[in-house]
Amino acid sequence: MSKTPNPLLHTAVSLAASDVPVLPLRRGKVPFGNCPTCIGNACGGRPNMKTPGPCQCPGVCHAWAAATTDTAVLTSPAWETAWRQAVAVAYHPGGAGLTVVDLDDADAITWARATLPATLTVPTTRGEHWIYRGTMTSHNAVRPGVDIKSTMSYARYLGPGTGRLADLPDAVRALAVKQPPAFRPAPRAVSVLAPSGGVRCPHRTPVFLERGITMAEQRITAARSAVHATVYGAFLAVLSTHGRCGCLTDTHVNRLFTAAQAKGETPRHCTDAWTNARTTLGL
């Protein structure tokens, strides 16, 4: 029995043939959540979650890390349901040796035109993607309306764009140096909560902190619905305990963000949830 060609899958296969790792996006333009076998990275996930590629699970799991150039995987029965439900094609810029400067509005575009070298440009719903040759660490909100998507991230494929690829400039790399408060550890004001007499903050006990982060990760990965609310609640719980004494580090925050993104949350959703939780607690 013949099947109706899927235009999204056709696009994905074409990109994969050009060594661009691709994946489907579900409603909301976010990756598909992990299957039951891969919840909580029980399958082992991707190696260090730093590179894309299939794990033992044949399904579309691990968010951005599901991206692949393997046509056999893209067209496999396990991915067929996902492609039928998909609303868009995404790709892993870092896996393709690229960095996307995501400009969300007219002000951001004006800034880019005055600051960054011209390169391949793709129009988006609200702004533009400026794509450069080269990779770097992904960062959100490096300045108003500007995100950087490269390694351990995904970008929606919106067409070939116009212009020629330019090399990743130092001006873009420099943006990552000035990260927004949402990406920094909580203020190290240990004296705020520490008892008088210079007693060490009890929250610095490694086991106590590790248990809290692990419980938050488990809470997020176990969510079957209301993922946004669950992520926000987990962030709020961690910050309410560790947000004022300086216990949290970038490593802890990245663990929470990774767990949330594995459930289909976008980096921006994670940043917004973290920022909102900090604001609620007055941090």
Keywords for this structure?
283 residues, alpha+beta, six-stranded mixed sheet, globular
Count of helical regions: 10
Number of strands: 10
Estimated share of beta-strand residues:
5-15%
The overall average pLDDT, rounded, is 82
Helix content: 25-40%
Major sheet description: 6 strands, mixed
**Cα separation of the termini:** 60 Å
Parts with pLDDT < 50 across at least 5 consecutive residues: 178-200
Quaternary state of the chains: single chain
Radius of gyration: 20 Å
SSE order, as H and E?
HEEHHEEHEEEEEEHHHHHH
Q: Which secondary-structure class do the elements indicate?
A: alpha+beta
Please state the overall shape, judged from the principal axes of the Cα atoms: globular
Can you tell me about this structure?
This protein is an alpha+beta fold. The chain is built from 10 helices and 10 strands. It has helices spanning 7-17, 71-74, 77-85, 106-115, 170-175, 190-193, 206-221, 227-242, 250-262, 267-281, and strands at residues 22-26, 30-31, 88-91, 98-103, 120-123, 128-133, 139-143, 146-149, 155-156, 166-167. Strands 4, 5, 6, 7, 8 and 10 form a 6-stranded mixed sheet that branches. It has a 4-stranded antiparallel sheet with strand order 2-1-3-9. Strand 5 (120-123) and strand 6 form a beta hairpin. It is globular, with a radius of gyration of 20 Å. 39% of the residues are buried. Mean pLDDT is 82; it is low at 178-200.
